[in-house]
């Protein structure tokens, strides 16, 4: 009975998995892949306790491959080599299915160690992460994997799992249950979409409640007290992980240092340094940007210090950086400009690179126009000369607009003056 309740009642079929109907409902892509038996390399992305490990275990049971498990927080490069050494041996004649939990904690070198064996199919990788894989996973592994996002589970979907948990405990300990109305819903609602956390609360409530004449009396008061404690570290007000990090960034963007510090405190209390650091760096670039470009290396340095010293000291450089970002002038002109440029590229508005910009040092016999005709800006006054840089079909396209802040307006005034005097040589 020492095994946690969440592990004892882990579903054995896809139909029993709580939530994730967008992935596991009839006709959903992931369910069809699993049922086909042809399992590609997979990356499961989403918050804790929403079924990533459960689905990986179900997949493992459907394959003929030897299942091996590693956790990115504790595994070493030697652990990977030990698994690789089994390939082709009598212990893994059909290859290996590696379930790698918390892959975001594997460094680049560790991830690269797996790459050769993923490519040749001797290892099928199923990795899970609570962080955005496009920030934390080596691109070569991403390109060989299919990413599926697991979402926080709605509280009404968790209620049946809570009820089932109480019934299993009652059977194991040979007691009857007397449960007040609202207990199931309170536990399901108070655990932030995390099934594992809700089942831990079920166990806490069960063992904290009195037994009279073979009957466990579980009160709503007990559920409220224990569920609050189990959820307080990360989801104190019932908000989900993504709501907290969203509020964190929006508070910095909105120049409210008090609110930004509040949401930082919630992330710190949860021990979620990666989310706190990543959103902080994004906000420095996206929302402050060119209004105060020096902030970008400052924030990066604060993040590096935080990750180096760890908690609890990490709270200090992070707080300094959050206050700086929240109180700095704001400009998203850089983000708007690159998004518009990306929009053109994605819609096919590219065109040949102008002749004067090409990396050519000689002309072939078929060249209609001889000579590159590139004008070297440093040969001209103020290191600027008028010439065409964009392709012909979008030569008049305009992406960047100076923001209405002191820094960008100073640059604008400078270039307005420089460009008013055209093609004047030094």
Helix content: 40-55%
Radius of gyration: 28 Å
Task: Please report the number of helical segments.
Answer: 19
Shape label: globular
**What is the averaged pLDDT score?**
84
* Major sheet characteristics: 5 strands, parallel
> What string, H for helix and E for strand, traces the elements in order?
HHHEHEHEHEHHEHEHHEEHHHHHHHH
Distance between the termini: 85 Å
SS content category: alpha/beta
Strand content: 5-15%
Number of strands: 8
Strand order in space, largest sheet: 2-3-4-1-5
Helices and strands in order:
Layout: H1 5-8, H2 21-24, H3 29-36, E1 42-45, H4 52-62, E2 66-71, H5 77-85, E3 96-101, H6 108-119, E4 123-129, H7 133-136, H8 139-142, E5 146-149, H9 155-173, E6 176-179, H10 183-190, H11 195-208, E7 211-212, E8 215-218, H12 220-235, H13 241-253, H14 257-269, H15 273-288, H16 295-309, H17 315-327, H18 333-346, H19 406-418
Parallel strand pairs: 1-4, 1-5, 2-3, 3-4, 6-8
Antiparallel strand pairs: 7-8
Helix pairs in contact: 5-6, 9-10, 9-11, 10-12, 11-12, 13-14, 13-15, 14-17, 15-16, 15-17, 16-17
Describe the structure.
By secondary structure, the protein is α/β, with parallel strands linked by helices. The chain is 49% helix and 9% strand. A 5-stranded parallel β-sheet has the order 2-3-4-1-5, with helices on both faces. A 3-stranded mixed β-sheet has the order 6-8-7. Helix 13 runs parallel beside helix 15 and helix 14 runs antiparallel to helix 17. About 1% of the residues have low confidence.
